[in-house]
Structure formats: structure tokens, C-alpha cells
Design brief:
The structure holds 2 protein chains of 2 kinds. Chain A is of the alpha/beta class. Chain A contains 21 helices and 24 strands. Helices cover 33% and strands 20% of the residues of chain A. In chain B, the strands form 2 sheets. Chain B has an 8-stranded mixed sheet, with helices on both faces. A two-stranded antiparallel ribbon of chain B has the order 5-6. Classes of the chains: A alpha/beta, B alpha/beta. Strand 17 of chain A pairs parallel with strand 2 of chain B, so a sheet runs across the interface.
């Protein structure tokens, strides 16, 4: 537990600042969950918190659920703010804001023991007999209406709550007001004033009378020359990464959770002289994109799983015709319409193998919001260099969460997107002895032989051929460029132990929880490390050397274990490396992995959070880990070797073994110092 | 979007030779002897030659089908795409590269059946391109199945008792979906076809020509009733000349949508010529206007300064 010499503070709580228990407690990490309905604007309140944290050079990560209903419905926004490194959005909340009775009922189980429930006493009637939590009732609805007058009704209670939180966490009020003002700038002045009034009302509420503790994040001192932090969600990061990479054209069709990428590009690209087209359907979207790319402007399309299925034929054409193109798949739960607003990583096979025929393409996956930006830049480079379709896999969790990260150095990154139309002497679009680079239309060719870009198997000039020899040669040509790419891909760095008992392998948005899991298991002296694959097809060379250094290799992913007991990446790795020690940990509950689920899935025992390693927790009582959470839904398959016979082992298919009671696993305070 | 960013290499160009039929001829067509599509190809060569379009600016595109093999027979930039999606492919090229001449060739299955949705939306959005649909009323590449334009009663491998589904009325469909140049011609009438292709080319917007093009293998004689050499009558639409003569009143006003429907209502083989033409702004022009005004409002900034400003707002 962090020593908490409270900062000398003057006149920060109206009433009795001298009281020692009212001095802010210094903290370095807090998980705040706002639970309400989606129309209440809890997302924007949460986003303000995230942006403020970013501006204060704190690490921040958010997590949200969106109802699949058209308007309204229960929704949450969770913000984790840390003065150190924040990898995941948090397994449990320190602070729960409940706007409604259902918000309270659905999420109280997520509040850690000793955590604070801040509830709208106009709408919520909590069970005050449950002594595990600290209760703070504030008539949020009534006070918001009172502060804003009758016409606003209770609209603005999100901002009122923001004021309350700002008070409780001792946030920088001036910075927050500035954020609010910026957010509503350009709109009616009365909107800014209303928002500021609501904020002020929340901030002025004497919350000190009902909550005896207040907190202050440890101040992060920005190092001289360190970059500023920018705060955005994963879909924005993808869009701006594409722009930095010189992608100026694209086409798409609306689908959750991809739509905001296309909305951003539609709005932003004209500023750069480019264009994003909303197409009549997914097939048109990918075809328009190929038209842009063929014309010399590397272009992007994207969708979620159902839309990618529709685009698949044209993606095969891009493989065959060797046209560079970027395809973003913001994955959601499948198959079919599936779980439109939940997270899943079940489109990996589709990305790598989707479609008929041998149609090589590159598949990359972003691991964090920041990585969404850089992976877009990398994808564009690969697409141009190898004249190939490149998939970028993201998912619902990356799409909707907000993170703060170092501002990218644009001067080093920005690319000039103009197509090269210089006259050339002669041109063979599909020369067998080199990687295809097309001459876009408008390119004058002196020998007068113009290229035909073809989806039929073709000769080196693009003219159709039925020659078996040519088909073999061209198939190899299309595949070999991926092998060439694999040569230049970096071997992933190992996080945690460089060698030892357990290696975790992840891809995509599980980066945070997997790394948090490694961190926590190492506090328990586990010899554990992790690698995270950003390049999924082709895989980088050299992974087998890393596998060799560990006893177990466990692939952690959010998809089904399939008929043979292995998730999608695990299946690919087993096929690729013939390595029987590769195991699979999967889950399909539509929610991001919790650190606990990963650890329990691998070790079949408990690893409660050790406070000493995590710094102080709000409210001081750090050792009490909340233990009545929903059961882990991860399915572990641990097999010594692949069993495909009918009598295969089903033991691993059941829910992982658990200790009899969670209580048994809670470390006593004395354990803190030993870990 | 803007042409000025694209072509920077004009200074040191060698002198241009005249564009000849020979220069734009590629593979020998794989069509059956007697196929109507030969005439369409010949007319295309003629128009390109006549107009002396810069060779590298010609883009010939197609989807899938007998007629969609077209780009292989043209020596020029071009692409052979997937079934039914040539209109969106052409849309991307047209929107990004206003310096190019985008030509699209295909059949009735490609255009009216599997690609029907794209035809509607390309037309609605009025994306600048010239699209010739070689309509033979039958699926030829797959060997005689019913097509969306096969007449009721047509016996095919998929309708051995004769087709029962109402065929698409191409002219009505195109006018209704918002195409701004809609014409009909016949593969046996090359002068008329050349005239139609030239007018389609000159029209800014989504220009479509339905060309009746006989499949001698699977639907021989389908269009004889419109071929004077086979005893039929090729009735050409007389367009208004605005010459204040009494007969002009009875001529066709190409801007009159209802009149176009009335012409399209005439039973097969119907009439030939321009059914409808309208100068609605193209998507190309409207998007460009938006791009230009956006950039102008920002003071035509550099790319990096735009993105930097966006990042500054996210701090």
C-alpha cells in the first residue's frame, strides 16, 4: 500500500478542511464505472475524464458497452486512470456511479469490496445493509433539474456527475472546464453555459458531508521534451493512421462497430483533397475501393464480419490481380448478425483464408488504441511495397475505448500520396521475376503495350491463360511475396520472463489483460512471459526459438475452441509449428478478457491482486479483493498433444477447476509483503 | 480529386503518334463467329480512333460474361473484374481520376441481374462513365440459361418449358434509377451505334447504352425483327429539333422522362436512339465542389498541418 502523506491542501472542501479524514488521499490508479442508459451521455462524461487524464499526462483506458437497441438501453462507460502504466480497463471498479436501479443491480457485483457506490438517490434504492461498500447518495436528477431550470429536464446530469467526480477525485477544475468549453465550442453559447452550470452544481455539492474520503491522483511530472498526450478511441486512431499513411480514398457501408471509421474519413478526407464514398452495399464498397487503388491511390474499405463476408469475392480479385488495398475488420461477435455490440476475435480465419482459391493476403492486428494508428501506417506501407490486399483486424473493444498516448511524430510519418504516372518504356504487370507494381491508368507506355489487370489466371502481360505451368508459377509468385515479407518482420519481444514455464501468446485487443496477467503472475513468482502477435499472416520468422524456451505455450484469444479444442490462432500455430505443447485458452462471452480469467484459465488457481505491487487503492482497504464476481467463462484446453481421435480428451472442455471458495484465495495482509 | 496533382511529366514527352486501330487492338476476340459483340468492339475502335483520345487515358473495364471479355481485346489500360461489380470499380476510377476516359462493357446478366443494384446506384449518383450493355437475352458464357432480359416463353436449360419471369425493361429501369443518358442501339447498325457511343461519351454523367447483340449460338435470330437485312424494321427515335415546325411537336423530347417511358412501352423490338438525357450534376462534380470548398475554407493547408491541428484538438 502506498504511503499516503496527504498533500497539504487548503480550502478544498467547503466546510471543514482541517479534518484529517477530509484531506485527499494520494492514489495512483482508480477504476470508475458509470452505469446508466445510453441516452444519458455517460459516454461523454467518461470521455471528459479520459481526456483530462490524457492532458494531465496520466495513463488512461476506457471500456464501454453499447446496447444493440436503436435508442437507449443500459450502457456503461468505465474509465481507468493511472499515474503509472495502465494496460487494461480493470477487473473491478473502485467507484461505481449508478443512475438507475438497474444500473445499481447489474453492476454492484463489479464494485470491489470497500469501493464507493455513488448513486442517484432520486432513482436508486440500494441495499444499505450490505456493508461491503461505501454508499454515497446524491439526488442527481433533482439537483440537475434545479440547477438548469425546467426546460433542460434531467439532461445534463452526466455533467453534474462529472462535477461530483471532479470534486471527489480532486481533479483539475480549470482544465475540465476548458475541455467542456472546447467540446461544445461552435455550438450555441447557451449549450456551453448550461454544461458549465451543471458541472458547477455538481462540483459545489457538499459531497464531503456524505463521503468522508477524497482522493488525488499522484501528480505526473512530464519529462522535458516528452511528447504531449493525445486522447482518442481505436476507430479514430485507425482513421488518422490511414491519413498519416497517405491514404486519401476509400469506400464503405455502415455497420457496427466499423461505422465511425468511415464517418471520420468521410468528414476528414476532403480536407486533404481526398474522398470517402458511402456505397450502396459492401460489394460496391470494396469494388469502389479497388477502383481507387487501381487508379493509383491506395484506398481503404472496412466493415465488421458480416460485411467482410460480402466483400470476400472482391478481396480474392485483389489477391489475383495483385492490387494493393486495405481492409479493416472491426470484429464483433459472430457468426451471422451475431453480437453486434460485443467483442470477439473470431474473424481471424476469415481474414487469412476467407474466399475461394489460394488467395494470399497480409493480416495485421492492432493491440491497443495507439497501435491502431501505427498499424494503419504499417499496413499501408506493406500494401504498397508488396502490391497486396492487407487486412487490419481491430475489434469492438478497441473501437470504442479511449486511451491517451504519446502524440505521433507527424513530421517523420506523413506520406505524399500522389500516384506515379511517369512515362515508362515498357511494362509487364505480372513479371514472374519480381514483385508486381502496377502502372496506373494514365501512365504512358512507350512501346505501346498496355497492361490488363485480370481476375482470370493470366500471363505476365495480364492476358488470360489456361496453362497449368503458368497457373503454378503465378500462384507461387503471389504466395512468395508473403514469404519475402515474413523475412522483414520483427520477431516479437517477450514481455516478462525471457524463458521459463509459461509463454502466453495473444493478438489484438487482449494485449492489456494478457500483460497485466503476466505482471500479476510474476508477483507470485511464476516464470511467465508473453508475446503479442501484430503480424498474423504471414507470421514473423523465429517464433519457434521463443517457444523452445518455455515449458507451456498458451494462446489466449476471444473465440471458440472449435471442434478440435483450439482457438483460431492456436490452430494456426499448431499447424505451422507442429508444436504439441501449444495450448489454447478461449472464451466467447462477448466481453474483454479479465486478468483473473486469464490467470485462472492457465493455472486453475487464484491470483488475487496484491496491493503492494499495485500501489494504494482508494479508500485504503487495498487488501480486500472483491470476490463475488461473475464466474469466469474462459475455456481452457490443456493437452499434452493433439488428440483428434474419437476418444479425444474432453477434460479440458469443462470450466476450469476452481478453488472451493473465493474467500480461501484471498491473501491476508501479511501475504502482501511476501509477494 | 484534382488533375493538377496527377500529371507532372508532360515536358519531356516524345511526340505522339496518331492513335490507330492497330495500336488499340489486342488479343483476337474469343467470341463465336457471327457474335454481335464483334460489331461493338469495332465501333469502339472507330470512336477512339475518330476522337484521337490519348492512348494512356483510355480505361476499358468489364465484369464477367461473354461480352465482358471485351477489355482483353483492347490494347489500353483496363481491368477484367468480378461478376456484376464493374460499375462500382469504374466509379472509384472515375471519382479519383477525372483525367481518364472510363468505358465499361458488359452483358445483360452482369448489368441487370447480379449487378442490378450497382446499376441503379451508379445511375442515381450520376457517376461519370460510359457503359455499353451488350444485351443478348441469354446467358452465353455458361451456355444457355435464362437471362433477366429473356422474353417470356424463351426455352433455356434453366427454363426447358419456356421462361416465365417478366423480363427487365432496360430503358424503364435505367430512366427510373436516374441514369442521365439512356440510349438503345443494335449491333447490326454500326453507324447508329457509333453515334450513340459518341453522344454517351460526350455526356457528363452516367451514360448507358443498351445494344442488342445477337448470340448466334444460344439465341440466334433474336433481334432479326429490328434488322432490315433480315426483313425487320430498325425504327429510330426522332428527336426534337426545336425548329418551330409543326412536325417537331411529335418528335421526342429527350429531357421528358414520361415520354421516355412511353417509348420504352412500345412492344419488342421497340425503337432505337436516345430515350432520355438530362444534365443533372455528376457525383464527380458535387464531391469535387465539397472538397474544393473544404480546402478553401481551411486556406488550402498542407496535409501535415491539417492533421496536426486535429491532434492539437485531441490533447
Amino acid at each position: 500500500m502506498n504511503p499516503t502523506p496527504s498533500l497539504p491542501e487548503t480550502n478544498f472542501v467547503p466546510g471543514s478542511p482541517e479534518r484529517a479524514d477530509l484531506r485527499p488521499e494520494s492514489i495512483d490508479d482508480a477504476v470508475i464505472r458509470l452505469a446508466g442508459n445510453s441516452q444519458d451521455g455517460i459516454q461523454s462524461a467518461g470521455a471528459f475524464l479520459a481526456r483530462l487524464a490524457g492532458r494531465s499526462d496520466q495513463d488512461v483506458m476506457t471500456y464501454m458497452t453499447i446496447p444493440a437497441t436503436i435508442s437507449g438501453g443500459p450502457s456503461i462507460f468505465q474509465v481507468r486512470i493511472g499515474s503509472g502504466e495502465v494496460l487494461s480497463a480493470g477487473d473491478e471498479a473502485d467507484f461505481l456511479v449508478a443512475f438507475y436501479q438497474h444500473s445499481y443491480q447489474d453492476h454492484i457485483g463489479f464494485l470491489r469490496e470497500g469501493g464507493v457506490l455513488l448513486y442517484d438517490s432520486d432513482n436508486v434504492d440500494p441495499n444499505l445493509d450490505d456493508k461491503r461498500f461505501v454508499y454515497v447518495g446524491v439526488p442527481i436528477t433533482g439537483l440537475t433539474v434545479e440547477a438548469l431550470g425546467g426546460t433542460a429536464k434531467d439532461k445534463g446530469k452526466n455533467i453534474f456527475v462529472l462535477g461530483l467526480i471532479s470534486k471527489i477525485f480532486h481533479l483539475d477544475v480549470e482544465k475540465m472546464k476548458k475541455l467542456i468549453t472546447e467540446k461544445f465550442a461552435g455550438k450555441d453559447e447557451s449549450i456551453v453555459n448550461t454544461a458549465l452550470m451543471a458541472f458547477q452544481a455538481g462540483y459545489a455539492y457538499p459531497v464531503g458531508n456524505v463521503l468522508s474520503k477524497q482522493y488525488q491522483f499522484e501528480h505526473v511530472v512530464k519529462k522535458p521534451g516528452a511528447p504531449d498526450q493525445i486522447t482518442m478511441d481505436g476507430n479514430q486512431a485507425l482513421a488518422y493512421g490511414l491519413i498519416a499513411a497517405g491514404v486519401r480514398y476509400g469506400a464503405g457501408y455502415p455497420i457496427t462497430p466499423w461505422s465511425s471509421v468511415m464517418e471520420t474519413l468521410r468528414r476528414e478526407l476532403p480536407k486533404y483533397g481526398g474522398l470517402f464514398v458511402q456505397a450502396e452495399d459492401e460489394l460496391a464498397a470494396v469494388s469502389i475501393t479497388l477502383g481507387f487503388s487501381y487508379s493509383g491511390h491506395l484506398a481503404v474499405t472496412g466493415s465488421a464480419g458480416p460485411g467482410i463476408s460480402l466483400k470476400t469475392e472482391a478481396i480474392g480479385w485483389a489477391s489475383m490481380a495483385e492490387i494493393p488495398m486495405l481492409i479493416i475488420n472491426v470484429q464483433r461477435g459472430g457468426p451471422s448478425t451475431g453480437l453486434p455490440t460485443n467483442v470477439e476475435q473470431s474473424d481471424l480465419f476469415q481474414a487469412i483464408y476467407g474466399g475461394h482459391g489460394d488467395s494470399p493476403r497480409v493480416v495485421l492486428a492492432a493491440k491497443t488504441v495507439e497501435d491502431c494508428f501505427y498499424i494503419a501506417v504499417e499496413a499501408a506501407r506493406i500494401a504498397r511495397q508488396y502490391s497486396t490486399p492487407v487486412f487490419i483486424l481491430s475489434d469492438t473493444s478497441l473501437a470504442t475505448r479511449i486511451e491517451a498516448f504519446d502524440e505521433p511524430k507527424l513530421a517523420d510519418l506523413m506520406l505524399d500520396p500522389k500516384p506515379d504516372l511517369s512515362t515508362i518504356d515498357t511494362h509487364k504487370p505480372y513479371a514472374l521475376d519480381k514483385i508486381t507494381h502496377h502502372a496506373p491508368p494514365g501512365t504512358r507506355i512507350r512501346d505501346g503495350k498496355y497492361p490488363l489487370i485480370s481476375g482470370l489466371e493470366h500471363d505476365e502481360f495480364g492476358h488470360p491463360t489456361g496453362s497449368p505451368k503458368m497457373h503454378m508459377a503465378m500462384t507461387a509468385k503471389r504466395r512468395n511475396k508473403l514469404r519475402q515479407l515474413a523475412e522483414e518482420l520483427p520477431v516479437p519481444e517477450i514481455y516478462g520472463a525471457e524463458e521459463g514455464d509459461t509463454l502466453l501468446i495473444g493478438w489484438g485487443s487482449t494485449y492489456g489483460p494478457i500483460h497485466d496477467a503476466v505482471k500479476r503472475a510474476r508477483e507470485y513468482n511464476e516464470k511467465i512471459g508473453a508475446i503479442h502477435l501484430r503480424h498474423l499472416h504471414p507470421l514473423p520468422n523465429g517464433l519457434e526459438d521463443i517457444f523452445a524456451r518455455f515449458q507451456r505455450v498458451v494462446v489466449v484469444e476471444m473465440n471458440d475452441e472449435g471442434v478440435y479444442g483450439f482457438g483460431q490462432l492456436a490452430t494456426i500455430l499448431r499447424a505451422r509449428y507442429c508444436e504439441p505443447k501449444i495450448e489454447s485458452l478461449t472464451k466467447t462471452d462477448g466481453l474483454t478478457f479479465r486478468v483473473r480469467e486469464i490467470l485462472e484459465g492457465i493455472f486453475h488457481r487464484k491470483f488475487p491482486r496484491l496491493v503492494a505491487a499495485n500501489g494504494a487503492r482508494p479508500n485504503g482497504n487495498g487488501a480486500s479483493s472483491k470476490t463475488t464476481d461473475v464466474p469466469s467463462t474462459a475455456t481452457a484446453t490443456a493437452r499434452a498433444e493433439a488428440k483428434v481421435s474419437p476418444a479425444r480428451d474432453h477434460a479440458g472442455d469443462s470450466t476450469p477447476t476452481r478453488p472451493e471458495t473465493y474467500e480461501a484465495a484471498i491473501p491476508s495482509k501479511s501475504q502482501d509483503s511476501t509477494a | 480529386m484534382s488533375t493538377d496533382t496527377l500529371t507532372a511529366t508532360a515536358a519531356t514527352e516524345p511526340p505522339r503518334e496518331k492513335l490507330t486501330k492497330k495500336a488499340i487492338t489486342a488479343d483476337h476476340p474469343t467470341w463465336c463467329p457471327g457474335c454481335g459483340d464483334f460489331a461493338v468492339l469495332a465501333c469502339y475502335y472507330k470512336v477512339l480512333e475518330k476522337r484521337q483520345i490519348e492512348h494512356e487515358k483510355i480505361v476499358t473495364l468489364a465484369g464477367i460474361g461473354c461480352s465482358s471479355r471485351f477489355p482483353y481485346f483492347v490494347n489500353g489500360h483496363g481491368a477484367h473484374f468480378i461478376h456484376g461489380r464493374a460499375v462500382p470499380l469504374a466509379s472509384g476510377i472515375s471519382l479519383a481520376r477525372p483525367d481518364l476516359h472510363v468505358f465499361l462493357f458488359g452483358g445483360d446478366g452482369d448489368g441487370f441481374s447480379i449487378g442490378g443494384n450497382h446499376l441503379d446506384h451508379g445511375a442515381r449518383k450520376n457517376i461519370n462513365m460510359t457503359y455499353v450493355i451488350m444485351d443478348n437475352f441469354v446467358y452465353g458464357l455458361t451456355k444457355k440459361q435464362t437471362s433477366p432480359t429473356s422474353p417470356i416463353g424463351f426455352k433455356s436449360k434453366t427454363d426447358p418449358q419456356g421462361a416465365i419471369d417478366q423480363p427487365v425493361n432496360a430503358m424503364k429501369k435505367l430512366v427510373a434509377s436516374g441514369a442521365t443518358f439512356v440510349a438503345r442501339t443494335h449491333a447490326s447498325q454500326v453507324n447508329h451505334m457509333i453515334q450513340m457511343i459518341e453522344r454517351a461519351m460526350d455526356h457528363p454523367g452516367f451514360s448507358v447504352i443498351e445494344c442488342l447483340s445477337e448470340c448466334v449460338e444460344f439465341f440466334p435470330g433474336a433481334f432479326d425483327s429490328a434488322n432490315p437485312r433480315k426483313g425487320g424494321a430498325f425504327s429510330v427515335i426522332e428527336e426534337k429539333k426545336y425548329d418551330n415546325t409543326p412536325e417537331d411537336e411529335f418528335r421526342h423530347d429527350v429531357t421528358d422522362e414520361l415520354a421516355a417511358y412511353k417509348l420504352a412501352q412500345i412492344p419488342f423490338p421497340g425503337v432505337f436512339g436516345v430515350f432520355y438525357q438530362n444534365d443533372r450534376p455528376t457525383k464527380n462534380a458535387l464531391e469535387k465542389k465539397w472538397v474544393d470548398s473544404t480546402r478553401e475554407k481551411l486556406g488550402n493547408p498542407s496535409d501535415i498541418s491539417v492533421l496536426q491541428k486535429t491532434f492539437d484538438r485531441m490533447k
